[in-house]
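quick one, 66 residues, struct below
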Amino acid sequence: MPKVKTNSSAKKRFKLTGTGKIARKNAYKSHILTKKTTKQKRNLTTTSYVSDADMGNVKRMLVLGK
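---
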């Protein structure tokens, strides 16, 4: 049986934490930053976690489980 490949785009975007959660970066921080407030840009810098609804899809892309 062939090996299961990890999704290349997912491995660049997600990181597994020590507690088993999957960390991700926030959207809306790449361009058109002039109209966003300093507070909004600062809050977008922090990492977020993948929601429970999307956890299965992300784990499947990262080949973390069955």
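The chain has one domain: 8-62.
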